[in-house]
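2024-03-11 09:14:02 DEBUG pipeline.ingest accepted 1 chain
2024-03-11 09:14:02 DEBUG pipeline.ingest length=305
2024-03-11 09:14:03 DEBUG pipeline.predict start
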Amino acid sequence: MKKQVLVVALALGVSGAFAQDLTSKKGEPMLPEAGDYAISMNVDPIFTYLGNAFHGTAATGNTPGTNWLNGQQTIVAKKFIDEKSAYRLVVRLGFTNQTTKAMISDATVTTAPTYPATPAMVEDKMKVNNTNIGIGVGKEMRRGKTRLQGFYGADAMIWISMLGTKYDYGNALSTGTPAVGVGSSTNFGSNMTTDAYGNNARVLSQKSGMTFGIGVRAFVGAEYFIMPKISLGAEFGWGIGYQMTGKGKETVESIGGATPTVGQVETKTSGSSKFGFDTDLNQGTIFGFHGSNTGSASLKATFHF
């Protein structure tokens, strides 16, 4: 009889220990509950930064900047139906407007400056506009009775991206005296080219066609609750998707013709399409088959409230 009482007491003690493990010392529940909301995000860049900071070198990723949290970051929001299931909303809204400026000699000035006078200069500009929008909805199911929780489910996703570049030059092309050619402009890296007639040219604008994609992905992952309602985990997915890119155009400026004149030449660029069935990294690109990091899992943090 005493042995039976001892066994029962031991069993109750063990079950009580597990029950206490799911609450904090203040009695706060560790795991999500019905009605809870959650936000999940990739924390790989943060750990990379912290790791580099400890060895004290100027390694890549050691300095936080505008791209510190990954230019392809997505955020996952959740609404828990009950403690074992949740609706998901996957969002990426990215809008970038970047301007690069450079000073170059004024090509219309033919007289060299007398020391210590400052040479006459004009300004060239390159403006880049980039848009990335991705939205997904899905459902997540969960398993586990301890701090270690497994989850699985599926997301349906759409994404849109656009890219445009515009150049403004301080020196206008001219066939007069002095003649001003393409060489009197700043080379930003991809703006010096030739037109359809073989003349040296400089790009005025580039506009890619809009990319539109749809996809469905299944996912599986696990997370461990390190504090009440705060977890670290990883997610891995496998999906199928299709994306289509429309036609774009490029406008260049050059000097040409039988009687040399300044003109603009517009060139159309063809569109493209892609179909994919592959593993993906949801926390990196909005859909992995057309992005980077394909086939690898990512460390993420999730905050429930």
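2024-03-11 09:14:41 DEBUG pipeline.report The chain has one domain: 31-304.
2024-03-11 09:14:41 DEBUG pipeline.predict end
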